[in-house]
Amino acid sequence: MTTHTSSTATTGAVVTAAAQPISRPSTRTPGRVPWARLVRVELRKSFDTRSGRWLLASLGLAAVLTTGAIIAWAPTSELAYSQFTLAIGVPMTIILPILAVLSVTSEWSQRSGLATFTLVPHRGRLVLAKAVAAVLVTVPATAVAFAVGAVGNVIGTALADVPTVWDQSLVDVAYFAAGQTLLLLVGFVLGALIRNSSGAIVAYMLYAFVVPGLLAFLAFNQAWFADARPWVDAKYNQDALLRGQLAGDGWSHLAVTSLVWLVVPMMVAVVNVLRSEVK
Amino acid sequence: MIAVEHVTKTYGPFTAVDEVSFTARPGRVTGFLGPNGAGKSTTLRVVVGLTPPDHGTARVLGRRFRDMPNPGTEVGVLLDASAQHAGRTGREVLSIAQTTTGLPRRRVAEVLDVVGLSEAEATRRLRDYSLGMRQRLGLAHALLGDPEVLILDEPANGLDPAGIRWMRDLLRGYADRGATVLLSSHLLHEIEVVADDLVVIGHGHVVAAGTKDDLLAGAGTYVATRHPGMLAQALTSAGLAHCADDRSEVAGTTAPAVFRVEADAELVGHVAAAAGVALTELRPADAAGLEEMFLTLTADTQRERHPAATPQGAAA
After folding, report:
1. Which of B66, B72, B173 faces A122 most closely, judged by CB atoms?
2. Domain locations in chain A?
3. How many angstroms separate the Cα of A34 from the Cα of each of A129, A164, A206, B63?
4. Which of B75, B100, B165 to mutate to test the interface with A (most CBs of A within 10 A)?
5. Which of A27, B93, B119, B268 is 20 to 30 Å from A194 at the Cα level?
6. What CATH number is associated with residue B249?
7. Mean per-residue pLDDT of chain A
């Protein structure tokens, strides 16, 4: 058997490595990894893959396409700033939550969590950093929605030769951002609960489009449910918030449904993430 | 320094790791050896804090892993080279780790150079990497912080013979500079050539641990003679356990008979001389002995056998 341990390095690079002495801990700065840095790294990780970049590009692309569709097909009498921004907001309620889903699930689906959780063995800080990084994406997304919407409003009304209506205030911008944030957090929580990319995305689609449809159908046919719906249907209230149509009891409805459908699952999800092993 | 004490981890009715204790010392390469499913990976995951043990403790540089403020600068870990996002480039994977740990940016180029990944290779996405390239990238990831402790799970998987040789030299160099190197493998030969210390695990139990030399010394001596009767008698009266090696029967009557003796070569030589037996061969069982030890120690825990029998937990 050839069992000789050779002392000669086979490549020059190894010699270089062996020549450097290992620094002692005293020469290092053993500071804890700053939390703000974790947020920055998580933001970077959302967009450094091809799929991440496509999702980012699709935010802008969907905004432009939606604007074009409104200019082409919407009745000219209805052209208004809110018409554009709210329509642009619809594809964003899909894309932003998917980004949030993937930021959590990829650590399990792609198993990169092995490296992430050994570099930072404090998952609570990581989960918070991921959530904040995901929420931060709503800022440029909101800016894009209102900028593209404004351009669309000017062009659309000019083409239709009708007066330009500016019916969106700064408060509406805040409602839009808040509504997008809540939906994005729903995606985040589903990602943390399911920890599988496709599973969590399907779950979000059910939450955002299938269940509200069924509930609306039920409310339409059953009078008792029509009254109860705002206390049950979280997406209904989140949509109302996004469109700036929340008033009076609406805020209570939003608080109650968000507590039940968002905060409680979030606590379960965080506990799961803290304990779940990356296989 | 890595200290694992009484670590036990069960998954439902299955005990993955049972009361595992061992120490990996600085300046030495510690080989963690065992058949597939013996509990190597589970133990390493407990060490780096990915898997909470049911009981027992694992400390790296005197601290639990999760108490380290910035482990990337002190401990290099490679558990699974394929466990990275397939859509990232090799360089991006390293840059993320470099940013997270707050290391200077030049470290990325330095470790790429150390593991021999070219600039062009580093800009490719991981889904286009061969297993060998992933191992090199994983090693680069582990070396990024110039760590004092290296923990590597099956690092030689997928490397070609030259790559294995290269990695062996790299790990040797790290240990010689005072680092603690712990690497696991199910391949005996791979570990044997680089390790100073060995920890052998089977069915979740540590079945042997110690320096490689000590474990090899216990492997005995091969002795050959044309007077097997006289030698056997002399060995028996000297109180040395021995057995006829299979090869002597295969070789036919004209060839010398070979014994394996549970004693070192010098003692066997003296016994033979005192008895006036001429020897044709006398050598330590060495590598072959370690292989035999590995097979013997893990025989009752091999997948090929029924695991029903209670394993012999004779930690050395």
Report:
1. B66
2. 32-275
3. 11, 48, 37, 20
4. B100
5. B93
6. 3.30.70
7. 88
pLDDT given for residue A26 in this prediction: 43
| ipTM of the complex as predicted | 0.86
Report the C-alpha gap between B285 and B116 in whole angstroms.
37
A 16-45 → B contacts, CB under 8 A = 16-18, 20-25, 28, 30-34, 37-38, 40-41, 44-45
CATH code where residue B78 lies: 3.40.50.300
pTM, two decimal places: 0.83
pLDDT, tens digit, 9 for 90 and up, residues B148-188: 999 999 998 888 888 899 999 999 999 999 999 999 998 88
Question: A214-228, pLDDT tens digit by residue?
Answer: 999 999 999 889 889
Q: Are residues B33 and B88 in the same domain?
A: yes
- Closest CA–CA distance from residue A51 to any residue of chain B (Å): 8
| Structural domain for B229, as ranges | 220-284
CB A117 within 8 A of CB A123: yes
pLDDT for B313: 38
Both B38 and B169 in a single domain?
yes
**Domain match, B52 and B74 both:** yes
User: Residue B48: which of A11, A28, A118 has the nearest Cβ?
Assistant: A118
> How many whole angstroms from its chain centre is CA B35?
11
Interchain CB distance below 8 Å, A121 and B92: no
CB atoms within 10 A of CB B36: 9
